Amino acid sequence: QFSQDDFATGVVYDVDMDGDLTVADAYQFCQSLQPTLPSDVVKFRAQAVVERANVFGKERNHLSIILSNGLELKGFFDYAKYATALKTGAEIDVVFTLELDSYSGNICGIIVDLTLLNSLHFEELYKTTLLNNYLSESPQKQVVPANKLVQLLDQPSTLVVFDTYQQFCDCSKFYNFDAYTLDFFVQNKCSFKSVVIAPSKQFDYSQYNNVISFANYTNFERSLAPNCKYVQSTLPCDVLSDVKLDRNVCVSVYVALKNKNKFESIDSCFTKYLLGKCTYPQFVASVKVFEELQLIEVVDDYNLVVFPNKKVDLQSSKLFNLLSI
Which of 126, 191, 200, 201 gives 20 to 30 Å between its CA and that of 84? Predict the structure, then answer.
């Protein structure tokens, strides 16, 4: 007989770099052990603030980050999904190896495992993630009564969803999540029981038998797992309480989208045309309003179709009415 713990995965590291160990000394230590087998490579662990983050590669699926101590870390393939959160200046817990970059001649790190830590910088990202998951139509919901919630939380293969870290902290006063791992925005750890804060639109729910959302609003719907169970609630969506829309904001965003160069990303419209005119959450909300009213069709991150001759009333949008001043 095997328990769930027998199948739990983790990352083992060799050296903690949160002390006085410099990058140069760490690399020299690795070199002194040569030759070694690839399986014997020294793994370092650090908690650090990310100063810069970018994606690179032909498919833009690799990650490059610069830590506060100047060390560049590279993560290949799956790590690009962290870029949006890391650009906020997040703090991370990271395990990596060291090598000499053949192109620059600098010492760099190769990411083995990366975990996002809670950050006040995430507050805006909570809003934009929620808006990106917006649904104009109300899905059928399976609601969990409060008296059955504890039993459901004890089940294996369970994912619990919150929209902010504060929601998680508030619910932790009444429910025990000690057996759960904690992730932000994207899935990281392989765990039978996980809590995710503000899952992105691309989040993969398929590995869990049970998905439970503690955020169940009376005035806002968003896309989650098809089999998601919602905690019984009558709360409004206070996460978006300071995201306000009016006609002037929407017009500014619409004009910016119409002027977008075909080689520019949709997000670049905000930095190129709208700084000082609206916030980024307002920009994302306006795009979702235009999609809801079928004024535009977003094809991908770089391409959209604008329907300039269509006349609609902004108040025909549920989202606009929710956020209008």
Answer: 191
